[in-house]
Structures are given as structure tokens and as C-alpha cells.
Design brief:
alpha+beta, Nuclear Transport Factor 2, Chain: A, 4-stranded antiparallel β-sheet, UPF0225 protein CLV35_3674
Length: about 120
């Protein structure tokens, strides 16, 4: 097991947390869990997971990550949507570093559940 902590900030190891979702061994139970896994996906370069967890109506055909940009911390501000809800939302701040630049991406993300699977719909 990888002893490194998960980028999502849960406190668990990557392998025990978002790594399970990235490898397809587990599915997100809530929109917040999917948001955390997607943040970690950007942090560790899991493009296949990011595309797989994106709703087909809004998913880009391809996704290229900026290798110079490092995602350093996630703050979940609020979330809604549980085990049996069809929709959910997550407000978050994602902190990053690119060279000497530091920044924050703040987003309100929307999620939908189809066939029991949570998918990222869009964000603004």
C-alpha cells in the first residue's frame, strides 16, 4: 500500500482513498466523494478516471493536463446529494501552484446520478 496521503485531504492514504476509485475498485457514494476523487485525479494525472467520471453530455473528447500545474490542496465549502439523491452539488476551492505562481480555483460543481453512478455534469 502506498504510504502517501491522498491529495484530496481526507487524511487516508491515496491507495485506501481516491486510488480505489481511480482504479475502478470502488464507486463514489456521494457527489463530495466524487469531487475529492476528481481533484486527486487532476493532482496525480488520472486522465482516464477524469473522463470516465464526466457526464457524456458535457465531457470533452480529450483532456490534456498541464504538467507544470500542481494541485496542492482542496477545501470543500459545502456539498449536497446523498446515497439516493439523483442530483448533488459541491462548492470547493482547489489550490494550485504553477512555477512561482500560486492560485485558487473556486467552483460550484453539479453532479447527476445515472444508473447508480455519480457523474460530474459541469461547474461554474
Amino acid at each position: 500500500m502506498n504510504p502517501e496521503r491522498c491529495p484530496c485531504g481526507s487524511g487516508d492514504t491515496y491507495d485506501a482513498c481516491c486510488g480505489r476509485l481511480h482504479r475502478g475498485e470502488a464507486a463514489a457514494a456521494t457527489p463530495e466523494q466524487l469531487m475529492r476523487a476528481r481533484f486527486s485525479g487532476f493532482a496525480v494525472g488520472e486522465v482516464d478516471f477524469l473522463l470516465r467520471s464526466w457526464h457524456p453530455d458535457t465531457r470533452p473528447a480529450t483532456l490534456e493536463l498541464d504538467r507544470e500545474q500542481q494541485w496542492t490542496r482542496l477545501e470543500v465549502l459545502s456539498s449536497s446529494g446523498g446515497l439516493f439523491d439523483p442530483r448533488g452539488e459541491v462548492d470547493f476551492r482547489a489550490h494550485y501552484r504553477r512555477g512561482d505562481e500560486r492560485g485558487v480555483l473556486e467552483e460550484h460543481s453539479r453532479f447527476v446520478r445515472e444508473d447508480g453512478t455519480w457523474l460530474y455534469l459541469d461547474g461554474f
